[in-house]
Amino acid sequence: MTTFASDTLTRDALTVLQPGFPGTQAPDWLLRRLGEGLASVGLFGRNIATPEQVAALTAQLRAEREDVLVAIDEEGGDVTRLEVRTGSSFPGNHALGAVDDTDLTRQVAQELGRRLAACGVNFNWAPSADVNSNPANPVIGVRSFGADTGLAARHTAAYVTGLQAAGVAACTKHFPGHGDTAIDSHEAMPRIEVGRDVLAERDLTPFRAAIAAGSRAIMTAHILVPALDPTRPATLSRPVLRDLLRGELGYDGLIVTDGMEMQAIAATYGIERGSVLALAAGADAICVGGGLNDENTVRRLRDALVTAVRTGELPEERLADAAERVRALARWTRSAAVSEDRVPSDIGLLAARRAVRVTRTAAQPPLTEAPYVVALSPVANIAVGDETPWGVAAELAELLPGTETATHTDESAAQATLDAAGTRRIVAVVRDEHRHEWMAKTLDTLLSERPDTIVVEMGVPQSPPRGALHIATHGAARVCGRAAAEIIAGRQAAR
């Protein structure tokens, strides 16, 4: 099918797309599409080298389209793009929930937003408002403020307020709530089998708080919730997006899909059909680019939407309405009032320190000699990725030079660690021990042989504390590792 850039229908089809691209400079095809109507671009870790480079990249985009929305998946904590290769300067939602100081959460979000804005980013696919009600959840975990609905709601609102005070639009996710799943929607279609009353009281409450706080966008979840729609996932569901989000909750901002190349959609509907169904159901913007990031993807989706309108499957006024909502958000980012409140630049580290919880079995003097650190590492989910470093070894090495480390992914870690550590003190770093039997067994062996082992839990601390010294950081960001290392080396008083 041939389309023309001057065609209003084609421009609207491009306007509702939020694609990614390869490299640290904008390719020619992307700049050309901006001239033809594309209104949003998504940045991922592959696009980022330094803050200065990102600023130059966003300036390149704005030279082609001044009001372009530059989006990013920058939650802080585990999910970071600005600091994908170093680890985040912000501890993440679960740590903020553990502190439970909404003013602190607002300040953290505002400083994160300030850094994004300084790079030319004006739209953040955050925060996660999911209530982490299922301990087996493989994809939310520390990305959630916690398992308590009220806590998640008040911190979601604080985060939205802080981020938007920096002039960066918030995109609260993953509607209607991804917390009660045991499946990662990057890999398959999760199904949530609870009644509408539970959803209303538990999962929807943080989204109501986000709406009340003025969240400029909300991202949909690729999850099937039979109580709301027995046939289609939320991203493609009119009852979920039109009747519930727009109607019952009264939301009037931008509705954005989660990544359409995620298997929950791509393997079931395909990205073209999925995008048409999402727009028809009430979504306004199609997020794609985490995996598929070439010109052909943009062309395929543009043409699928144009064809759907011309065949009557997608009403033209629905596409036009969606495109106008994208443009309205772009106008907001250009006119948003930016708060002049001053936030400490190290607010992320201050928050990480406050989030640490320490349990001691006996008096433990600080380490003065370099330990041996073993990281018991689960497979990273796709949202986090495997590029971002985590743990305490690098931070401990700064405080205790000579610190050595090894990473293991199965029960062989125990004997390998005992052999390698020798007489050195062992620091065992884990994430979500309660979800990984091999991790629990490894700790059993280490603690049996070396009762003075220090345990650092950097995931959701569901398992009982154990070890001579147990440090729960409530997150795996670089600053969480720093906060734990300070306690181990006696550089900070335990809270």
In short:
The chain is an alpha/beta fold and 495 residues long. It is built from 18 helices and 14 strands. It has helices spanning 8-15, 28-36, 51-64, 93-99, 102-118, 149-165, 196-203, 205-212, 238-248, 263-266, 271-281, 295-310, 316-335, 347-355, 393-399, 413-421, 437-449, 478-488, and strands at 17-18, 40-43, 69-72, 123-124, 169-175, 217-220, 254-256, 286-287, 357-360, 372-376, 404-408, 426-430, 454-457, 469-472.
Provide the fold topology.
Blueprint: H1 8-15, E1 17-18, H2 28-36, E2 40-43, H3 51-64, E3 69-72, H4 93-99, H5 102-118, E4 123-124, H6 149-165, E5 169-175, H7 196-203, H8 205-212, E6 217-220, H9 238-248, E7 254-256, H10 263-266, H11 271-281, E8 286-287, H12 295-310, H13 316-335, H14 347-355, E9 357-360, E10 372-376, H15 393-399, E11 404-408, H16 413-421, E12 426-430, H17 437-449, E13 454-457, E14 469-472, H18 478-488
Parallel strand pairs: 1-8, 2-3, 3-4, 4-5, 5-6, 6-7, 10-11, 10-12, 12-13, 13-14
Antiparallel strand pairs: 9-14
